[in-house]
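Sample A.
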Amino acid sequence: MLSFIILFSAGAVCLTTAYADEEEEQEEDENDEEDEDTGDDEEEDTSSSSSSGASALLTNDKIKSSEKAKTDAEQTKAALAQGQENAKRIIASLETAKSDAQEYVTKIDGEISNIQDKIDALSANIVRIREDIAETERELEEAEKIRAQQYEYMKMRIKASYESREETIAEAIFTSKGIGELLNRSLYLNEVAAYDNKKLAEYAETVKTVNETAERLAGEEEELKDAMDEALSEETAAQALLDEKEQEVAAYTASIGDKEAQVREYQAMIAEQNSIIASMEAAIKAERERLAAEARKYGGGVFAHPCPDYTRISDEYGMRMHPTLGVELMHNGIDFAAPSGTPIYAAADGEVIGAGYSASMGNYIMIDHGSDIISIYMHASKLLVSQGEEVSKGSKIALVGSTGRSTGPHLHFGVRENGSYVNPSKYLGG
Protein backbone atom coordinates (compact mmCIF):
# COMPACT_ATOMS: atom_id res chain seq x y z
CA MET A 1 0.00 0.00 0.00
CA LEU A 2 1.26 3.41 -0.86
CA SER A 3 0.97 6.38 1.36
CA PHE A 4 2.54 9.69 0.50
CA ILE A 5 3.57 12.21 3.05
CA ILE A 6 4.29 15.66 1.78
CA LEU A 7 6.66 17.63 3.88
CA PHE A 8 7.20 21.31 3.16
CA SER A 9 10.05 22.44 5.33
CA ALA A 10 12.62 25.28 5.27
CA GLY A 11 11.44 26.43 1.87
CA ALA A 12 12.05 22.94 0.48
CA VAL A 13 9.50 20.38 -0.72
CA CYS A 14 9.93 16.77 0.36
CA LEU A 15 7.48 14.27 -0.98
CA THR A 16 7.96 11.12 1.03
CA THR A 17 6.21 8.00 0.07
CA ALA A 18 5.42 5.29 2.51
CA TYR A 19 4.67 1.91 1.21
CA ALA A 20 4.46 -1.50 2.64
CA ASP A 21 5.28 -5.05 2.10
CA GLU A 22 3.90 -8.15 3.72
CA GLU A 23 7.02 -9.92 4.65
CA GLU A 24 9.42 -8.74 2.05
CA GLU A 25 7.72 -5.49 1.10
CA GLN A 26 5.31 -5.34 -1.75
CA GLU A 27 6.02 -1.76 -2.64
CA GLU A 28 3.26 -0.99 -4.92
CA ASP A 29 4.58 1.31 -7.51
CA GLU A 30 8.04 2.07 -8.60
CA ASN A 31 7.69 5.82 -8.61
CA ASP A 32 4.85 6.57 -6.27
CA GLU A 33 6.81 7.43 -3.30
CA GLU A 34 8.10 10.74 -2.75
CA ASP A 35 9.12 13.08 -5.06
CA GLU A 36 11.45 15.05 -3.06
CA ASP A 37 13.71 17.35 -2.65
CA THR A 38 14.76 20.24 -1.07
CA GLY A 39 17.89 21.61 -1.49
CA ASP A 40 20.20 23.07 0.92
CA ASP A 41 22.58 25.15 -0.90
CA GLU A 42 25.67 23.17 -0.87
CA GLU A 43 27.10 24.81 -3.93
CA GLU A 44 26.12 28.30 -4.93
CA ASP A 45 26.71 29.56 -8.41
CA THR A 46 28.36 32.97 -8.48
CA SER A 47 26.44 33.90 -11.57
CA SER A 48 22.93 35.12 -10.82
CA SER A 49 21.68 34.12 -14.25
CA SER A 50 23.20 30.71 -13.83
CA SER A 51 21.59 30.40 -10.38
CA SER A 52 18.26 31.48 -11.81
CA GLY A 53 18.52 28.89 -14.57
CA ALA A 54 19.39 26.16 -12.09
CA SER A 55 16.41 27.14 -9.95
CA ALA A 56 14.07 27.06 -12.90
CA LEU A 57 15.44 23.70 -13.99
CA LEU A 58 14.98 22.28 -10.49
CA THR A 59 11.45 23.58 -10.34
CA ASN A 60 10.65 22.07 -13.73
CA ASP A 61 12.16 18.73 -12.67
CA LYS A 62 10.10 18.73 -9.51
CA ILE A 63 6.94 19.49 -11.44
CA LYS A 64 7.70 16.65 -13.83
CA SER A 65 8.47 14.35 -10.92
CA SER A 66 5.24 15.27 -9.14
CA GLU A 67 3.25 14.83 -12.34
CA LYS A 68 4.81 11.41 -12.82
CA ALA A 69 4.06 10.50 -9.20
CA LYS A 70 0.48 11.62 -9.77
CA THR A 71 0.24 9.46 -12.92
CA ASP A 72 1.72 6.51 -11.05
CA ALA A 73 -0.78 7.00 -8.22
CA GLU A 74 -3.64 7.11 -10.73
CA GLN A 75 -2.39 3.88 -12.31
CA THR A 76 -2.10 2.26 -8.89
CA LYS A 77 -5.63 3.43 -8.10
CA ALA A 78 -6.87 1.84 -11.33
CA ALA A 79 -5.12 -1.44 -10.47
CA LEU A 80 -6.64 -1.39 -6.99
CA ALA A 81 -10.08 -0.64 -8.41
CA GLN A 82 -9.73 -3.63 -10.73
CA GLY A 83 -8.67 -5.78 -7.77
CA GLN A 84 -11.70 -4.54 -5.83
CA GLU A 85 -14.01 -5.50 -8.70
CA ASN A 86 -12.40 -8.93 -8.91
CA ALA A 87 -12.92 -9.43 -5.17
CA LYS A 88 -16.57 -8.39 -5.52
CA ARG A 89 -17.06 -10.92 -8.33
CA ILE A 90 -15.53 -13.60 -6.14
CA ILE A 91 -17.88 -12.62 -3.30
CA ALA A 92 -20.87 -12.94 -5.67
CA SER A 93 -19.65 -16.39 -6.75
CA LEU A 94 -19.13 -17.45 -3.14
CA GLU A 95 -22.61 -16.18 -2.21
CA THR A 96 -24.10 -18.32 -4.99
CA ALA A 97 -22.16 -21.39 -3.88
CA LYS A 98 -23.15 -20.74 -0.26
CA SER A 99 -26.82 -20.42 -1.26
CA ASP A 100 -26.64 -23.70 -3.21
CA ALA A 101 -25.03 -25.44 -0.24
CA GLN A 102 -27.69 -24.07 2.11
CA GLU A 103 -30.45 -25.33 -0.21
CA TYR A 104 -28.79 -28.75 -0.20
CA VAL A 105 -28.61 -28.64 3.61
CA THR A 106 -32.35 -27.91 3.69
CA LYS A 107 -32.98 -30.85 1.34
CA ILE A 108 -30.89 -33.20 3.48
CA ASP A 109 -32.69 -31.96 6.60
CA GLY A 110 -35.99 -32.96 4.96
CA GLU A 111 -34.59 -36.38 4.04
CA ILE A 112 -33.36 -36.93 7.58
CA SER A 113 -36.81 -35.95 8.86
CA ASN A 114 -38.43 -38.51 6.52
CA ILE A 115 -35.95 -41.18 7.60
CA GLN A 116 -36.69 -40.40 11.23
CA ASP A 117 -40.42 -40.76 10.55
CA LYS A 118 -39.66 -44.11 8.94
CA ILE A 119 -37.59 -45.17 11.95
CA ASP A 120 -40.39 -44.10 14.30
CA ALA A 121 -42.91 -46.15 12.29
CA LEU A 122 -40.60 -49.19 12.28
CA SER A 123 -40.07 -48.83 16.02
CA ALA A 124 -43.84 -48.72 16.57
CA ASN A 125 -44.31 -51.83 14.39
CA ILE A 126 -41.59 -53.68 16.27
CA VAL A 127 -43.29 -52.81 19.54
CA ARG A 128 -46.63 -54.04 18.11
CA ILE A 129 -45.09 -57.28 16.83
CA ARG A 130 -43.46 -57.93 20.16
CA GLU A 131 -46.78 -57.36 21.89
CA ASP A 132 -48.39 -59.82 19.44
CA ILE A 133 -45.62 -62.34 20.15
CA ALA A 134 -46.20 -61.92 23.86
CA GLU A 135 -49.94 -62.46 23.34
CA THR A 136 -49.24 -65.56 21.22
CA GLU A 137 -46.98 -66.91 23.93
CA ARG A 138 -49.77 -66.34 26.45
CA GLU A 139 -52.19 -68.19 24.14
CA LEU A 140 -49.75 -71.09 23.87
CA GLU A 141 -49.42 -71.17 27.63
CA GLU A 142 -53.22 -71.19 27.91
CA ALA A 143 -53.45 -74.05 25.41
CA GLU A 144 -50.88 -75.95 27.40
CA LYS A 145 -52.94 -75.41 30.55
CA ILE A 146 -56.09 -76.68 28.76
CA ARG A 147 -54.18 -79.65 27.44
CA ALA A 148 -52.88 -80.41 30.92
CA GLN A 149 -56.38 -80.12 32.38
CA GLN A 150 -57.72 -82.40 29.65
CA TYR A 151 -54.93 -84.83 30.31
CA GLU A 152 -55.76 -84.86 34.05
CA TYR A 153 -59.42 -85.28 33.28
CA MET A 154 -58.73 -88.25 31.00
CA LYS A 155 -56.55 -89.87 33.68
CA MET A 156 -59.30 -89.39 36.24
CA ARG A 157 -61.93 -90.81 33.91
CA ILE A 158 -59.80 -93.83 33.02
CA LYS A 159 -59.13 -94.45 36.70
CA ALA A 160 -62.81 -94.15 37.55
CA SER A 161 -63.70 -96.44 34.68
CA TYR A 162 -61.20 -99.00 35.84
CA GLU A 163 -62.39 -98.82 39.42
CA SER A 164 -66.05 -99.11 38.38
CA ARG A 165 -65.12 -101.59 35.61
CA GLU A 166 -66.81 -99.53 33.02
CA GLU A 167 -68.10 -101.89 30.40
CA THR A 168 -66.93 -102.15 26.87
CA ILE A 169 -69.25 -102.20 23.90
CA ALA A 170 -69.00 -106.03 23.81
CA GLU A 171 -69.93 -106.25 27.44
CA ALA A 172 -72.79 -103.88 26.86
CA ILE A 173 -74.10 -106.14 24.07
CA PHE A 174 -74.03 -109.34 26.10
CA THR A 175 -75.26 -107.86 29.33
CA SER A 176 -78.03 -105.65 27.99
CA LYS A 177 -81.54 -106.86 28.77
CA GLY A 178 -83.01 -105.36 25.68
CA ILE A 179 -82.34 -103.44 22.51
CA GLY A 180 -83.23 -100.13 24.10
CA GLU A 181 -80.79 -100.57 26.92
CA LEU A 182 -78.12 -101.70 24.47
CA LEU A 183 -78.59 -98.58 22.32
CA ASN A 184 -78.46 -96.29 25.29
CA ARG A 185 -75.28 -97.87 26.63
CA SER A 186 -73.60 -97.88 23.18
CA LEU A 187 -74.48 -94.21 22.59
CA TYR A 188 -72.92 -93.22 25.88
CA LEU A 189 -69.69 -95.06 25.16
CA ASN A 190 -69.47 -93.46 21.67
CA GLU A 191 -70.07 -89.96 23.03
CA VAL A 192 -67.30 -90.40 25.59
CA ALA A 193 -64.86 -91.57 22.92
CA ALA A 194 -65.92 -88.78 20.52
CA TYR A 195 -65.45 -86.15 23.24
CA ASP A 196 -61.93 -87.42 23.95
CA ASN A 197 -61.04 -87.33 20.25
CA LYS A 198 -62.53 -83.85 19.83
CA LYS A 199 -60.56 -82.41 22.71
CA LEU A 200 -57.36 -84.00 21.44
CA ALA A 201 -57.95 -82.55 17.95
CA GLU A 202 -58.75 -79.10 19.38
CA TYR A 203 -55.52 -79.06 21.36
CA ALA A 204 -53.47 -80.18 18.36
CA GLU A 205 -55.06 -77.48 16.17
CA THR A 206 -54.53 -74.79 18.81
CA VAL A 207 -50.88 -75.73 19.22
CA LYS A 208 -50.40 -75.74 15.45
CA THR A 209 -52.06 -72.32 15.04
CA VAL A 210 -50.14 -70.79 17.91
CA ASN A 211 -46.80 -72.13 16.66
CA GLU A 212 -47.46 -70.90 13.12
CA THR A 213 -48.44 -67.49 14.46
CA ALA A 214 -45.31 -67.37 16.61
CA GLU A 215 -43.10 -68.26 13.62
CA ARG A 216 -44.81 -65.68 11.41
CA LEU A 217 -44.43 -62.95 14.04
CA ALA A 218 -40.80 -63.87 14.63
CA GLY A 219 -40.17 -63.56 10.88
CA GLU A 220 -41.91 -60.19 10.75
CA GLU A 221 -39.83 -58.99 13.69
CA GLU A 222 -36.60 -59.97 11.91
CA GLU A 223 -37.74 -58.15 8.74
CA LEU A 224 -38.55 -55.06 10.79
CA LYS A 225 -35.17 -55.23 12.50
CA ASP A 226 -33.43 -55.43 9.12
CA ALA A 227 -35.47 -52.47 7.86
CA MET A 228 -34.61 -50.58 11.06
CA ASP A 229 -30.87 -51.25 10.57
CA GLU A 230 -31.11 -50.03 6.98
CA ALA A 231 -32.97 -46.88 8.02
CA LEU A 232 -30.42 -46.17 10.75
CA SER A 233 -27.60 -46.57 8.20
CA GLU A 234 -29.40 -44.13 5.88
CA GLU A 235 -29.79 -41.68 8.73
CA THR A 236 -26.08 -41.95 9.64
CA ALA A 237 -25.02 -41.37 6.02
CA ALA A 238 -27.43 -38.44 5.64
CA GLN A 239 -26.21 -36.88 8.89
CA ALA A 240 -22.59 -37.22 7.76
CA LEU A 241 -23.46 -35.52 4.46
CA LEU A 242 -25.36 -32.83 6.35
CA ASP A 243 -22.34 -32.17 8.59
CA GLU A 244 -20.11 -31.94 5.50
CA LYS A 245 -22.42 -29.46 3.78
CA GLU A 246 -22.74 -27.37 6.94
CA GLN A 247 -18.93 -27.19 7.06
CA GLU A 248 -18.96 -26.06 3.44
CA VAL A 249 -21.47 -23.34 4.31
CA ALA A 250 -19.25 -22.24 7.21
CA ALA A 251 -16.20 -22.20 4.91
CA TYR A 252 -18.08 -20.14 2.32
CA THR A 253 -19.16 -17.72 5.05
CA ALA A 254 -15.56 -17.35 6.25
CA SER A 255 -14.28 -16.85 2.68
CA ILE A 256 -16.94 -14.23 2.03
CA GLY A 257 -15.91 -12.45 5.23
CA ASP A 258 -12.27 -12.50 4.11
CA LYS A 259 -13.12 -11.13 0.68
CA GLU A 260 -15.36 -8.45 2.16
CA ALA A 261 -12.45 -7.42 4.39
CA GLN A 262 -10.25 -7.36 1.28
CA VAL A 263 -12.78 -5.14 -0.51
CA ARG A 264 -12.73 -2.77 2.48
CA GLU A 265 -8.94 -2.73 2.30
CA TYR A 266 -9.08 -1.95 -1.41
CA GLN A 267 -11.53 0.86 -0.69
CA ALA A 268 -9.21 2.30 1.96
CA MET A 269 -6.23 2.03 -0.38
CA ILE A 270 -8.19 3.66 -3.22
CA ALA A 271 -9.16 6.48 -0.84
CA GLU A 272 -5.49 6.81 0.05
CA GLN A 273 -4.55 6.98 -3.64
CA ASN A 274 -7.14 9.74 -4.08
CA SER A 275 -5.44 11.57 -1.24
CA ILE A 276 -2.07 10.98 -2.86
CA ILE A 277 -3.33 12.34 -6.17
CA ALA A 278 -4.67 15.43 -4.41
CA SER A 279 -1.33 15.84 -2.65
CA MET A 280 0.54 15.55 -5.93
CA GLU A 281 -1.68 18.18 -7.48
CA ALA A 282 -0.99 20.47 -4.53
CA ALA A 283 2.73 19.77 -4.82
CA ILE A 284 2.70 20.58 -8.54
CA LYS A 285 0.92 23.83 -7.82
CA ALA A 286 3.36 24.68 -5.05
CA GLU A 287 6.35 23.90 -7.27
CA ARG A 288 5.01 26.10 -10.02
CA GLU A 289 4.74 28.92 -7.52
CA ARG A 290 8.34 28.59 -6.41
CA LEU A 291 10.68 31.08 -8.01
CA ALA A 292 13.92 29.46 -7.08
CA ALA A 293 15.42 26.46 -5.40
CA GLU A 294 18.86 25.38 -4.48
CA ALA A 295 19.97 21.82 -4.57
CA ARG A 296 22.82 19.99 -2.97
CA LYS A 297 25.14 18.08 -5.26
CA TYR A 298 25.98 14.41 -4.89
CA GLY A 299 29.71 13.88 -4.69
CA GLY A 300 29.61 10.62 -6.63
CA GLY A 301 31.15 7.27 -5.83
CA VAL A 302 29.77 4.02 -4.48
CA PHE A 303 27.40 4.08 -1.50
CA ALA A 304 28.48 2.58 1.80
CA HIS A 305 26.50 -0.59 2.55
CA PRO A 306 23.58 0.38 4.82
CA CYS A 307 23.71 -2.95 6.67
CA PRO A 308 27.29 -4.26 6.33
CA ASP A 309 26.89 -6.89 9.05
CA TYR A 310 24.11 -8.65 7.08
CA THR A 311 24.46 -8.30 3.33
CA ARG A 312 22.29 -11.25 2.21
CA ILE A 313 19.43 -9.98 0.04
CA SER A 314 16.12 -11.63 0.98
CA ASP A 315 14.09 -9.87 -1.72
CA GLU A 316 15.32 -8.22 -4.92
CA TYR A 317 14.19 -5.08 -6.69
CA GLY A 318 11.58 -5.56 -9.43
CA MET A 319 8.00 -6.39 -10.36
CA ARG A 320 6.14 -9.14 -8.53
CA MET A 321 2.59 -10.25 -7.70
CA HIS A 322 1.27 -8.95 -4.40
CA PRO A 323 0.84 -12.07 -2.21
CA THR A 324 -2.56 -11.13 -0.80
CA LEU A 325 -4.13 -8.57 -3.12
CA GLY A 326 -3.36 -10.36 -6.37
CA VAL A 327 -2.20 -7.13 -8.03
CA GLU A 328 1.17 -6.96 -9.82
CA LEU A 329 3.13 -4.13 -8.23
CA MET A 330 6.69 -2.94 -7.98
CA HIS A 331 9.03 -3.95 -5.16
CA ASN A 332 11.02 -0.75 -5.43
CA GLY A 333 13.96 -1.58 -3.20
CA ILE A 334 16.02 -4.45 -1.86
CA ASP A 335 15.63 -6.21 1.48
CA PHE A 336 18.47 -7.25 3.77
CA ALA A 337 17.50 -9.93 6.30
CA ALA A 338 18.97 -8.99 9.69
CA PRO A 339 18.06 -9.44 13.36
CA SER A 340 16.30 -6.69 15.25
CA GLY A 341 18.75 -4.20 16.72
CA THR A 342 21.35 -4.53 13.91
CA PRO A 343 22.84 -1.07 13.13
CA ILE A 344 21.76 0.75 9.96
CA TYR A 345 24.25 3.23 8.42
CA ALA A 346 23.91 6.22 6.08
CA ALA A 347 24.83 5.22 2.53
CA ALA A 348 26.37 8.64 1.77
CA ASP A 349 26.67 12.20 3.07
CA GLY A 350 23.42 14.10 3.09
CA GLU A 351 20.54 15.74 4.94
CA VAL A 352 17.80 13.79 6.74
CA ILE A 353 14.67 15.02 5.00
CA GLY A 354 12.33 12.45 6.53
CA ALA A 355 12.41 10.64 9.89
CA GLY A 356 9.18 9.31 11.31
CA TYR A 357 6.62 6.52 11.28
CA SER A 358 3.96 5.36 8.84
CA ALA A 359 1.63 2.37 9.00
CA SER A 360 3.25 0.83 5.95
CA MET A 361 6.94 1.83 6.21
CA GLY A 362 7.07 1.66 9.98
CA ASN A 363 9.96 3.74 11.36
CA TYR A 364 11.72 5.21 8.32
CA ILE A 365 14.51 7.61 7.37
CA MET A 366 15.04 9.49 4.09
CA ILE A 367 18.35 11.14 3.23
CA ASP A 368 18.85 13.71 0.44
CA HIS A 369 22.33 13.21 -1.04
CA GLY A 370 21.93 15.96 -3.63
CA SER A 371 21.60 15.82 -7.40
CA ASP A 372 18.10 14.38 -6.99
CA ILE A 373 19.41 11.23 -5.27
CA ILE A 374 17.59 10.12 -2.14
CA SER A 375 18.13 6.98 -0.06
CA ILE A 376 15.32 5.44 2.02
CA TYR A 377 15.56 3.06 5.03
CA MET A 378 12.39 1.34 6.34
CA HIS A 379 10.98 -0.82 9.18
CA ALA A 380 13.55 0.28 11.78
CA SER A 381 13.02 -0.63 15.41
CA LYS A 382 14.58 2.69 16.48
CA LEU A 383 15.62 5.94 14.77
CA LEU A 384 18.87 7.58 15.86
CA VAL A 385 18.62 10.80 13.80
CA SER A 386 15.95 13.43 13.22
CA GLN A 387 14.69 15.38 10.24
CA GLY A 388 16.96 18.26 9.33
CA GLU A 389 20.15 16.64 10.61
CA GLU A 390 23.24 16.37 8.44
CA VAL A 391 24.72 12.86 8.37
CA SER A 392 27.99 11.54 7.00
CA LYS A 393 28.61 8.40 4.98
CA GLY A 394 28.74 5.34 7.24
CA SER A 395 27.28 7.08 10.33
CA LYS A 396 24.79 5.07 12.36
CA ILE A 397 21.25 6.34 11.77
CA ALA A 398 18.86 3.57 12.98
CA LEU A 399 18.43 -0.03 14.15
CA VAL A 400 16.86 -2.90 12.16
CA GLY A 401 13.32 -3.88 13.16
CA SER A 402 9.98 -5.11 11.82
CA THR A 403 7.71 -2.08 12.24
CA GLY A 404 4.94 -1.12 9.83
CA ARG A 405 3.73 -3.59 7.17
CA SER A 406 6.34 -6.27 7.71
CA THR A 407 6.32 -9.89 8.84
CA GLY A 408 9.90 -10.16 10.06
CA PRO A 409 12.99 -8.13 10.96
CA HIS A 410 14.81 -6.73 7.91
CA LEU A 411 16.00 -3.49 6.31
CA HIS A 412 14.20 -2.31 3.20
CA PHE A 413 16.66 -0.04 1.33
CA GLY A 414 15.53 2.09 -1.60
CA VAL A 415 17.06 4.76 -3.83
CA ARG A 416 15.25 7.45 -5.81
CA GLU A 417 16.99 9.15 -8.73
CA ASN A 418 15.45 12.15 -10.48
CA GLY A 419 12.06 11.43 -8.92
CA SER A 420 11.93 7.71 -9.76
CA TYR A 421 12.96 4.57 -7.94
CA VAL A 422 15.99 2.78 -9.31
CA ASN A 423 17.71 -0.46 -8.40
CA PRO A 424 19.83 0.38 -5.33
CA SER A 425 22.40 -2.20 -6.44
CA LYS A 426 23.84 0.29 -8.96
CA TYR A 427 24.85 2.54 -6.05
CA LEU A 428 26.18 -0.35 -3.97
CA GLY A 429 28.57 -1.46 -6.66
CA GLY A 430 26.28 -4.28 -7.80
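Sample B.
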Amino acid sequence: MAEKKATKEATPKAAAKKAPAKKAVKKVEVVINAENVGFKAGDVYQALATAEKALSVKEIAKQAKISEEEALLGIGWLLKEGKVKDDAEKIALA
Protein backbone atom coordinates (compact mmCIF):
# COMPACT_ATOMS: atom_id res chain seq x y z
CA MET A 1 0.00 0.00 0.00
CA ALA A 2 1.29 3.46 -0.89
CA GLU A 3 2.05 5.81 1.94
CA LYS A 4 0.62 9.30 1.88
CA LYS A 5 3.10 12.13 1.95
CA ALA A 6 2.62 14.66 4.66
CA THR A 7 1.43 17.97 3.25
CA LYS A 8 2.38 21.31 4.70
CA GLU A 9 -0.53 22.97 6.35
CA ALA A 10 -0.63 26.62 7.23
CA THR A 11 0.37 26.86 10.84
CA PRO A 12 -0.01 29.99 12.90
CA LYS A 13 3.77 30.42 12.81
CA ALA A 14 3.87 30.25 9.02
CA ALA A 15 0.96 32.67 8.71
CA ALA A 16 2.67 35.10 11.06
CA LYS A 17 5.79 35.10 8.91
CA LYS A 18 3.83 36.16 5.85
CA ALA A 19 2.10 39.11 7.52
CA PRO A 20 4.09 42.34 7.43
CA ALA A 21 5.57 43.35 10.76
CA LYS A 22 3.78 46.21 12.48
CA LYS A 23 5.74 49.01 14.06
CA ALA A 24 5.15 49.56 17.71
CA VAL A 25 3.51 52.95 18.09
CA LYS A 26 4.61 54.81 21.16
CA LYS A 27 1.62 56.55 22.66
CA VAL A 28 2.51 59.80 24.39
CA GLU A 29 0.27 61.08 27.13
CA VAL A 30 0.53 64.82 27.47
CA VAL A 31 -0.46 66.45 30.73
CA ILE A 32 -2.32 69.63 29.88
CA ASN A 33 -2.05 72.26 32.57
CA ALA A 34 -0.66 75.79 32.60
CA GLU A 35 2.63 74.77 34.16
CA ASN A 36 3.39 71.91 31.77
CA VAL A 37 2.36 73.83 28.66
CA GLY A 38 4.45 76.77 29.81
CA PHE A 39 7.51 74.53 30.13
CA LYS A 40 6.91 73.15 26.62
CA ALA A 41 6.63 76.72 25.32
CA GLY A 42 10.03 77.41 26.88
CA ASP A 43 11.48 74.32 25.21
CA VAL A 44 10.10 75.43 21.83
CA TYR A 45 11.41 78.98 22.30
CA GLN A 46 14.89 77.74 23.22
CA ALA A 47 14.98 75.40 20.20
CA LEU A 48 14.05 78.26 17.86
CA ALA A 49 16.50 80.66 19.49
CA THR A 50 19.32 78.12 19.20
CA ALA A 51 18.54 77.34 15.55
CA GLU A 52 18.29 81.04 14.59
CA LYS A 53 15.98 80.10 11.71
CA ALA A 54 12.45 78.91 11.04
CA LEU A 55 11.85 75.23 11.85
CA SER A 56 9.06 72.76 11.14
CA VAL A 57 7.11 71.23 14.03
CA LYS A 58 9.01 67.97 13.56
CA GLU A 59 12.37 69.77 13.66
CA ILE A 60 11.36 71.72 16.78
CA ALA A 61 10.27 68.54 18.55
CA LYS A 62 13.52 66.78 17.65
CA GLN A 63 15.73 69.66 18.72
CA ALA A 64 13.80 70.27 21.96
CA LYS A 65 13.64 66.50 22.68
CA ILE A 66 9.86 66.57 23.15
CA SER A 67 6.99 64.95 21.26
CA GLU A 68 5.33 66.69 18.32
CA GLU A 69 2.15 67.03 20.39
CA GLU A 70 4.07 68.81 23.13
CA ALA A 71 5.75 71.03 20.54
CA LEU A 72 2.34 72.01 19.18
CA LEU A 73 1.15 72.93 22.68
CA GLY A 74 4.21 75.13 23.18
CA ILE A 75 3.84 76.71 19.74
CA GLY A 76 0.20 77.52 20.50
CA TRP A 77 1.18 79.23 23.73
CA LEU A 78 3.89 81.26 21.98
CA LEU A 79 1.61 82.17 19.07
CA LYS A 80 -0.98 83.50 21.51
CA GLU A 81 1.70 85.62 23.21
CA GLY A 82 2.97 86.88 19.83
CA LYS A 83 6.49 85.50 20.37
CA VAL A 84 6.51 83.26 17.26
CA LYS A 85 5.03 83.49 13.78
CA ASP A 86 4.33 81.05 11.00
CA ASP A 87 6.65 81.37 8.04
CA ALA A 88 5.81 79.16 5.02
CA GLU A 89 4.65 76.18 7.14
CA LYS A 90 7.54 76.68 9.54
CA ILE A 91 7.70 78.45 12.87
CA ALA A 92 10.07 81.36 13.52
CA LEU A 93 10.65 83.76 16.36
CA ALA A 94 8.65 86.96 15.93
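B remarks: The first strand starts at residue 84 and ends at 86. The beta strands are 84-86, 91-93.
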